[in-house]
Amino acid sequence: VAQVCCSIGDGEQEDVWLEAPAGQLKPSCRVDCPPSLRRKAGLHFQAKLSKPVDTPLGLTLELIGHDALEVVSIHEGPVQRYNDLPGQTKQLKESDLITEVNGIRGNNEMLVKVLMKDSALEIGVERPA
């Protein structure tokens, strides 16, 4: 399974999951996104953490396209405390992409709002290969 950026017609582009062996795409999907927008499949996991409402996470994020947030840096705060938990194997790291927060996907502005507002967070993380 691979995630690639595909043309969906009328000049629009969308990241989609394809069930295909590596290097092969379904005939209906034509890859024509700029290389900077392509993301290779890598590690995917859910990070569950909590924080007081309206408390900063301790992350510096960059908007990536329209549907993801890149972790630029991690500072003192709830994410650092999550990463420091004993036995924590699913740590957030710089360059990770946040692609989902509490079931919200596909709109990075909404992802930011949910990260800031909600206290219980289930964060979908993608670590590009």
Provide an overview of this structure.
The protein has 129 residues and is mainly beta. It is built from two helices and eight strands; from the N terminus they run E-E-E-E-E-H-E-E-H-E.
Task: Based on the model shown, name its key terms.
40% strand; 12% helix; 129 residues; 6-stranded antiparallel beta sheet; two-stranded antiparallel ribbon; 2 helices; globular
Task: Produce a short descriptive summary.
The protein has 2 helices and 8 strands.
Termini gap: 13 Å
Query: How many strand elements?
Result: 8
Radius of gyration: 16 Å
Helix and strand string, N-terminal first? EEEEEHEEHE
Low confidence ranges: 1-38
Query: Which bin fits the share of residues in helices?
Result: 10-25%
How would you sum up the major sheet? 6 strands, antiparallel
* H/I helix tally: 2
Q: What general outline do the C-alpha atoms trace?
A: globular
Strand content: 35-45%
Average pLDDT works out at 77
Tell me the structural class: mainly beta
Helix and strand topology:
Blueprint: E1 2-9, E2 12-18, E3 43-50, E4 59-64, E5 68-74, H1 78-83, E6 97-101, E7 104-105, H2 108-117, E8 120-127
Antiparallel strand pairs: 1-2, 3-8, 4-5, 5-6, 6-7, 6-8
